[in-house]
Amino acid sequence: ESFITLASKTKITVVGSGYVGMSLSVLLAQRNDITVLDIDQDRVDKINSRQSTVSDAEIQLFLAEKSLSLMATLDKEAAYQDASFIIVATPTNYDSVTNYFDTSSVDVVVENALALNHDALVVIKSTIPVGYTKFLQDKFETDRVVFSPEFLREGQALKDNLYPSRIIVGGQCEACKEFARLLTQGAEKNDIETLFIHSTEAEAVKLFANTYLAMRVSFFNELDSYSLSHELDTRNIINGVCLDGRIGDGYNNPSFGYGGYCLPKD
Fold it and tell me: In this protein, which residues make up the domain named UDP-glucose/GDP-mannose dehydrogenase dimerisation (predicted)?
Protein backbone atom coordinates (compact mmCIF):
# COMPACT_ATOMS: atom_id res chain seq x y z
CA GLU A 1 0.00 0.00 0.00
CA SER A 2 2.81 2.41 0.88
CA PHE A 3 4.53 1.61 -2.42
CA ILE A 4 1.38 2.41 -4.39
CA THR A 5 1.01 5.72 -2.56
CA LEU A 6 4.62 6.62 -3.22
CA ALA A 7 4.50 5.60 -6.86
CA SER A 8 1.40 7.71 -7.50
CA LYS A 9 3.18 10.90 -6.52
CA THR A 10 4.35 13.16 -9.32
CA LYS A 11 7.94 14.38 -9.30
CA ILE A 12 8.07 18.14 -9.83
CA THR A 13 11.08 20.42 -9.94
CA VAL A 14 10.67 24.08 -9.02
CA VAL A 15 13.51 26.37 -10.09
CA GLY A 16 13.83 29.41 -7.85
CA SER A 17 12.75 29.88 -4.24
CA GLY A 18 11.34 33.39 -4.09
CA TYR A 19 7.68 34.09 -3.34
CA VAL A 20 6.45 32.28 -6.46
CA GLY A 21 8.75 29.28 -6.22
CA MET A 22 8.46 28.84 -2.47
CA SER A 23 4.67 29.07 -2.36
CA LEU A 24 4.23 26.70 -5.29
CA SER A 25 6.68 24.23 -3.78
CA VAL A 26 4.82 24.10 -0.49
CA LEU A 27 1.42 23.93 -2.21
CA LEU A 28 2.44 21.03 -4.46
CA ALA A 29 4.52 19.19 -1.82
CA GLN A 30 1.32 18.25 0.01
CA ARG A 31 0.66 15.52 -2.57
CA ASN A 32 3.75 15.35 -4.78
CA ASP A 33 7.52 14.96 -4.54
CA ILE A 34 9.02 18.42 -4.91
CA THR A 35 12.63 19.31 -5.55
CA VAL A 36 13.59 22.97 -5.37
CA LEU A 37 16.59 23.95 -7.48
CA ASP A 38 18.39 27.12 -6.48
CA ILE A 39 21.86 28.68 -6.90
CA ASP A 40 22.01 29.98 -3.32
CA GLN A 41 23.37 27.54 -0.72
CA ASP A 42 21.76 29.45 2.15
CA ARG A 43 18.33 29.13 0.56
CA VAL A 44 18.85 25.44 -0.09
CA ASP A 45 19.88 24.90 3.53
CA LYS A 46 16.84 26.81 4.77
CA ILE A 47 14.40 24.72 2.74
CA ASN A 48 16.03 21.47 3.83
CA SER A 49 15.72 22.68 7.42
CA ARG A 50 12.02 23.40 6.89
CA GLN A 51 12.44 27.16 6.96
CA SER A 52 10.93 29.59 4.49
CA THR A 53 13.14 31.66 2.22
CA VAL A 54 10.54 34.45 2.13
CA SER A 55 8.44 36.32 4.67
CA ASP A 56 5.12 34.48 4.55
CA ALA A 57 3.43 33.26 7.74
CA GLU A 58 1.32 30.66 5.92
CA ILE A 59 4.36 29.10 4.25
CA GLN A 60 6.22 28.86 7.56
CA LEU A 61 3.16 27.31 9.20
CA PHE A 62 2.88 24.65 6.50
CA LEU A 63 6.60 23.87 6.75
CA ALA A 64 6.29 23.44 10.51
CA GLU A 65 3.04 21.49 10.71
CA LYS A 66 2.28 19.79 7.39
CA SER A 67 3.65 16.53 6.03
CA LEU A 68 5.44 17.75 2.91
CA SER A 69 7.61 15.87 0.42
CA LEU A 70 10.04 18.71 -0.15
CA MET A 71 13.80 19.01 -0.57
CA ALA A 72 16.21 21.48 -2.16
CA THR A 73 19.46 21.14 -4.08
CA LEU A 74 22.11 23.01 -6.06
CA ASP A 75 22.51 20.05 -8.44
CA LYS A 76 20.58 20.74 -11.64
CA GLU A 77 21.15 17.29 -13.12
CA ALA A 78 19.72 15.58 -10.05
CA ALA A 79 16.84 18.07 -9.91
CA TYR A 80 15.79 17.67 -13.54
CA GLN A 81 16.16 13.89 -13.74
CA ASP A 82 12.84 12.04 -13.98
CA ALA A 83 10.75 15.16 -13.26
CA SER A 84 7.36 15.23 -14.95
CA PHE A 85 7.07 19.00 -14.59
CA ILE A 86 9.75 21.68 -14.33
CA ILE A 87 8.43 25.01 -13.04
CA VAL A 88 10.50 28.09 -13.81
CA ALA A 89 10.13 30.69 -11.05
CA THR A 90 13.33 32.71 -11.42
CA PRO A 91 13.37 36.54 -11.25
CA THR A 92 12.96 38.64 -14.41
CA ASN A 93 13.64 42.18 -13.27
CA TYR A 94 12.73 45.03 -15.60
CA ASP A 95 15.76 46.84 -17.02
CA SER A 96 14.89 50.52 -17.35
CA VAL A 97 18.02 51.14 -19.42
CA THR A 98 17.22 48.63 -22.17
CA ASN A 99 13.44 48.91 -21.65
CA TYR A 100 13.17 45.12 -21.51
CA PHE A 101 12.65 42.37 -18.97
CA ASP A 102 15.90 40.60 -18.10
CA THR A 103 14.91 37.07 -19.11
CA SER A 104 18.43 35.64 -18.91
CA SER A 105 17.65 33.40 -15.92
CA VAL A 106 14.60 31.95 -17.69
CA ASP A 107 16.61 31.36 -20.86
CA VAL A 108 19.26 29.36 -19.00
CA VAL A 109 16.77 27.29 -17.03
CA VAL A 110 14.67 26.40 -20.08
CA GLU A 111 17.74 25.43 -22.12
CA ASN A 112 19.13 23.23 -19.33
CA ALA A 113 15.76 21.67 -18.54
CA LEU A 114 15.11 20.67 -22.14
CA ALA A 115 18.63 19.29 -22.52
CA LEU A 116 18.63 17.25 -19.31
CA ASN A 117 15.03 16.04 -19.37
CA HIS A 118 13.46 14.96 -22.66
CA ASP A 119 9.92 14.42 -21.41
CA ALA A 120 8.97 17.01 -18.80
CA LEU A 121 6.62 19.90 -19.45
CA VAL A 122 8.49 23.14 -18.68
CA VAL A 123 6.08 25.65 -17.14
CA ILE A 124 7.24 29.26 -16.96
CA LYS A 125 5.82 31.13 -13.96
CA SER A 126 8.27 34.03 -14.16
CA THR A 127 6.88 37.24 -15.64
CA ILE A 128 8.02 37.55 -19.26
CA PRO A 129 7.17 39.79 -22.26
CA VAL A 130 4.18 38.94 -24.43
CA GLY A 131 5.31 36.51 -27.10
CA TYR A 132 8.38 35.26 -25.26
CA THR A 133 7.18 31.68 -24.75
CA LYS A 134 6.51 31.44 -28.50
CA PHE A 135 10.06 32.70 -29.08
CA LEU A 136 11.45 29.93 -26.85
CA GLN A 137 9.23 27.29 -28.49
CA ASP A 138 10.56 28.30 -31.91
CA LYS A 139 14.15 28.60 -30.70
CA PHE A 140 14.24 25.11 -29.21
CA GLU A 141 11.76 23.62 -31.70
CA THR A 142 9.53 22.21 -28.98
CA ASP A 143 6.00 22.44 -27.62
CA ARG A 144 7.17 21.35 -24.15
CA VAL A 145 7.49 24.95 -22.96
CA VAL A 146 4.35 26.80 -21.82
CA PHE A 147 3.49 29.83 -19.72
CA SER A 148 1.19 29.86 -16.70
CA PRO A 149 0.76 33.24 -14.97
CA GLU A 150 0.75 33.64 -11.21
CA PHE A 151 -1.42 36.12 -9.35
CA LEU A 152 0.22 36.33 -5.95
CA ARG A 153 0.76 39.01 -3.34
CA GLU A 154 3.97 39.32 -1.36
CA GLY A 155 3.45 37.99 2.14
CA GLN A 156 0.30 36.12 1.11
CA ALA A 157 1.68 34.01 -1.72
CA LEU A 158 0.67 30.63 -0.33
CA LYS A 159 -2.79 31.88 0.64
CA ASP A 160 -3.29 33.12 -2.93
CA ASN A 161 -2.29 29.67 -4.20
CA LEU A 162 -4.64 27.94 -1.76
CA TYR A 163 -7.50 30.23 -2.78
CA PRO A 164 -6.68 31.28 -6.35
CA SER A 165 -8.91 33.68 -8.29
CA ARG A 166 -8.30 31.52 -11.36
CA ILE A 167 -5.81 29.08 -12.88
CA ILE A 168 -4.55 29.81 -16.38
CA VAL A 169 -2.31 27.49 -18.40
CA GLY A 170 -0.90 28.46 -21.79
CA GLY A 171 -1.62 25.22 -23.60
CA GLN A 172 -4.22 22.55 -24.17
CA CYS A 173 -2.13 19.38 -24.15
CA GLU A 174 -2.77 16.57 -21.67
CA ALA A 175 0.29 17.57 -19.63
CA CYS A 176 -1.12 21.13 -19.36
CA LYS A 177 -4.40 19.75 -18.05
CA GLU A 178 -2.54 17.54 -15.58
CA PHE A 179 -0.54 20.54 -14.33
CA ALA A 180 -3.76 22.48 -13.73
CA ARG A 181 -5.18 19.46 -11.91
CA LEU A 182 -2.16 19.36 -9.60
CA LEU A 183 -2.62 23.04 -8.72
CA THR A 184 -6.32 22.46 -8.07
CA GLN A 185 -5.55 19.38 -6.00
CA GLY A 186 -3.26 21.37 -3.69
CA ALA A 187 -5.69 24.27 -3.27
CA GLU A 188 -8.32 24.54 -0.55
CA LYS A 189 -10.77 26.48 -2.69
CA ASN A 190 -13.36 24.49 -4.63
CA ASP A 191 -14.65 25.08 -8.17
CA ILE A 192 -11.66 27.10 -9.36
CA GLU A 193 -12.17 28.72 -12.75
CA THR A 194 -9.54 27.23 -15.07
CA LEU A 195 -8.60 28.49 -18.53
CA PHE A 196 -6.51 26.74 -21.17
CA ILE A 197 -5.41 29.33 -23.72
CA HIS A 198 -2.36 30.09 -25.85
CA SER A 199 0.81 30.99 -23.95
CA THR A 200 0.99 34.39 -25.65
CA GLU A 201 -2.55 35.12 -24.49
CA ALA A 202 -1.65 33.95 -20.99
CA GLU A 203 1.34 36.33 -20.95
CA ALA A 204 -0.96 39.17 -21.99
CA VAL A 205 -3.46 38.29 -19.25
CA LYS A 206 -0.76 38.71 -16.58
CA LEU A 207 0.53 42.04 -17.85
CA PHE A 208 -2.88 43.56 -18.62
CA ALA A 209 -4.27 42.45 -15.24
CA ASN A 210 -1.45 44.14 -13.35
CA THR A 211 -1.60 47.19 -15.60
CA TYR A 212 -5.30 47.54 -14.79
CA LEU A 213 -4.61 47.23 -11.04
CA ALA A 214 -1.90 49.90 -11.25
CA MET A 215 -4.27 52.14 -13.22
CA ARG A 216 -7.01 51.58 -10.63
CA VAL A 217 -4.72 52.57 -7.76
CA SER A 218 -3.73 55.69 -9.71
CA PHE A 219 -7.39 56.50 -10.38
CA PHE A 220 -8.33 56.47 -6.70
CA ASN A 221 -5.21 58.47 -5.86
CA GLU A 222 -6.44 61.14 -8.28
CA LEU A 223 -9.89 60.99 -6.71
CA ASP A 224 -8.26 61.55 -3.32
CA SER A 225 -6.25 64.53 -4.62
CA TYR A 226 -9.39 66.08 -6.06
CA SER A 227 -11.30 65.58 -2.80
CA LEU A 228 -8.53 67.12 -0.71
CA SER A 229 -8.25 70.16 -2.98
CA HIS A 230 -12.02 70.76 -2.71
CA GLU A 231 -12.30 69.94 1.00
CA LEU A 232 -14.44 66.85 0.38
CA ASP A 233 -14.54 63.56 2.26
CA THR A 234 -12.62 61.08 0.12
CA ARG A 235 -14.01 57.99 1.83
CA ASN A 236 -17.63 59.05 1.32
CA ILE A 237 -17.03 59.52 -2.39
CA ILE A 238 -15.17 56.23 -2.75
CA ASN A 239 -17.90 54.35 -0.89
CA GLY A 240 -20.54 55.84 -3.16
CA VAL A 241 -18.58 55.07 -6.31
CA CYS A 242 -17.71 51.51 -5.32
CA LEU A 243 -21.27 50.49 -4.45
CA ASP A 244 -21.70 50.20 -8.20
CA GLY A 245 -21.33 46.46 -8.84
CA ARG A 246 -19.46 47.14 -12.07
CA ILE A 247 -16.72 48.93 -10.13
CA GLY A 248 -16.51 46.89 -6.94
CA ASP A 249 -14.84 47.48 -3.61
CA GLY A 250 -11.18 46.62 -4.13
CA TYR A 251 -7.91 48.39 -4.83
CA ASN A 252 -9.55 51.66 -3.87
CA ASN A 253 -7.46 52.81 -0.91
CA PRO A 254 -5.59 56.04 -1.75
CA SER A 255 -1.89 56.02 -0.95
CA PHE A 256 1.39 57.46 -2.17
CA GLY A 257 1.09 55.35 -5.33
CA TYR A 258 1.22 51.73 -6.35
CA GLY A 259 4.28 49.75 -5.34
CA GLY A 260 5.53 46.28 -4.57
CA TYR A 261 7.54 44.07 -6.89
CA CYS A 262 5.08 43.28 -9.69
CA LEU A 263 2.93 46.32 -10.51
CA PRO A 264 5.71 48.82 -11.31
CA LYS A 265 7.64 46.49 -13.63
CA ASP A 266 4.54 45.04 -15.33
Answer: 201-266
Residue 152 lies in a domain: yes
Q: Where are the alpha helices (DSSP H) in 84-186?
A: 104-116, 132-140, 157-162, 174-186
Q: What's the angle, vertex CA 73, arms to CA 71 and CA 79, rounded to 5?
A: 90
Is residue 242 annotated as a catalytic residue, yes or no?
A: no
Question: Are β-strands 100-101 and 94-95 bridged in parallel, bridged antiparallel, or unpaired?
Answer: antiparallel
- 13: Cβ contacts below 8 Å, ≥ 6 apart: 34, 35, 36, 37, 79, 80, 83, 85, 86, 87, 113, 120
Residues 88 and 193 in one domain: yes
User: End of a domain among 156, 174, 197?
Assistant: 197
The single residue of 173, 176, 242, 262 carrying the catalytic annotation is 262
Query: Does 172 share its domain with 207?
Result: no
CATH of the domain at 246: 1.10.1040.10
pLDDT in tens, 39-88: 999 999 999 999 999 999 999 999 999 999 999 999 999 999 999 999 99
The domain in which residue 130 lies consists of 11-197
pTM above 0.85, yes or no: yes
